[in-house]
Amino acid sequence: MENTQIPYQQDQKPVQYAGFWWRFFAYIIDEIVISFVSWIFIIPILAIFGISLYSLKQSGFDTDDPMLFAGPFIMAIIAMVFISTLVKWLYFSIMESSKHQGTIGKLVLKIKVTDTSGSRISFARATGRYFGKILSGMILLIGYIMAGFTERKQALHDILANCYVIKED
Asked: Of 25, 41, 93, 159, which one has the greatest count of Cβ atoms within 10 A?
């Protein structure tokens, strides 16, 4: 995990940028955290889905008809995707714009998100960075892989949000 040392400005000490693997391992940790939080919200949705199917059966509907389940099933999936996206967006944007400048995974690995001057990013910039990750993933993950090859170890979403991910001292 080699990192280049390039100064932000000449009057500051050199900075180590966090490359692809540091960020990848931080993301794995974050996904574990997000999974636990998401399930806190998703389990009640699944329970409601199950209760609605049980009540249909008790009402005398033909529960062998697969189309009977389509509406509630699709609504449950839409609700789970919406909640999952909302939890991820808030988790990444709030944590990366906080005084810690990073998610739990980044904190564990001692890396943080900064703007080009080394300062904390705003919630709006963190939001832009989060949704830029969609574009990074849409192009066969090349936007993420760029972090291993760009001079300042920036992924596409970092470039779009004008951010760096650096290793702390």
From this structure: 93
